[in-house]
């Protein structure tokens, strides 16, 4: 997956609880997992001639995909996180609060996997090592390539939810991205993957072209853990109202009341990791089928970044999965410019 080479510098990052994000058992267990990975990388580095830095510890970000904190601690010393990332060639974030966007921004500062590449593994658990991490990555790359080809030709995604709701996503003016688990120094495109890997994503058109309004519209249901379902009313690629059942409805209204830019439809994606289970952790659930995300999108190829939000504390991107074993699932078609329709999912199962 990583294939570190002689002369490289490797960094593992973990975040620590803050007043707004308290410790939980999975988080604490992840520290031990990070130590295991650090030991394995160190032993491999001694064989192959690359350096493994001490684990970087930093405060958890304000929200999923919010900007990195400015500093952390490395071997007891205060260090600037961006400065340190600019000095390594491979970074692995094993965080509670996702830092995928921050690692993506670091990759843009130093373009090309030969200079910097990163794996973002928020919410990673030990049991994933024998499931969604232990897969045939060559087969995954082939599957991602097929899905990417379908998305490249699509201008619309039409999604029907098992609640009876529907939404049409405007895919014009956008190129899909791929996370196929490949992160060697010759990787093309953005040198960033998730762990677990396995999805093809695209950011819906957000209306940045004068005179060309976005056409994403419909109703998107989102299920809460208690079974209640919120209904997001979407117009012109924005969530304009949240209806449905309490407490899901009230929870999401509070999220969007903090900052209306959180209502941007920032992503749709097709997860295709054959080992991904619906575990209740979005980072695994989303790799098992369809998902969409709201909020920030610049790290995925969109136009909405931190400057569009009220301030850094309100920046957010949240993914919502609809895999086959989720409470709500989907059927999805991709439509090309000539009106041709390709079925991709039927009730959560792939047909393409």
Short description:
The chain has 352 residues and is α+β, with helices and mostly antiparallel strands.
Written description of the protein model:
The protein has 6 helices and 21 strands. It is of the alpha+beta class and 352 residues long. It folds into 2 domains: 9-124; 137-178 and 198-350, no CATH class. Strands 1, 2, 3, 4, 5, 6, 7 and 11 form an 8-stranded mixed beta sheet that branches.
- SS elements, strand count: 21
Class by helix and strand content? Answer: alpha+beta
Helix % is 10-25%
Instruction: Give me the strand/helix succession.
Output: EHEEEEHEHEHEEEEEEEEHEHEEEEE
- Rg over CA atoms: 20 Å
Q: Ends: how far apart? A: 26 Å
Give the percentage of residues in beta strands: 25-35%
Number of helices: 6
* Overall outline: globular
Question: What summary fits the major beta sheet?
Answer: 8 strands, mixed
The chain-level mean pLDDT equals: 97
Low-confidence stretches: none
Domain module tally: 2
Please describe the structure with a list of short key phrases separated by commas or semicolons.
single chain; 352 residues; alpha+beta; 2 domains; eight-stranded mixed sheet; eight-stranded antiparallel sheet; 6 helices; 20% helix; 30% strand; globular
SSE blueprint and pairings:
Blueprint: E1 9-16, H1 25-48, E2 51-52, E3 56-59, E4 71-74, E5 77-80, H2 81-85, E6 90-93, H3 100-109, E7 117-120, H4 137-152, E8 154-161, E9 166-170, E10 177-179, E11 192-194, E12 199-202, E13 217-223, E14 229-235, E15 238-244, H5 248-258, E16 265-271, H6 282-285, E17 290-295, E18 317-321, E19 330-336, E20 341-346, E21 349-350
Parallel strand pairs: 1-2, 1-3, 1-6, 6-7, 7-11
Antiparallel strand pairs: 3-4, 4-5, 8-9, 8-19, 9-13, 10-12, 12-16, 13-14, 14-15, 16-17, 17-18, 19-20, 20-21
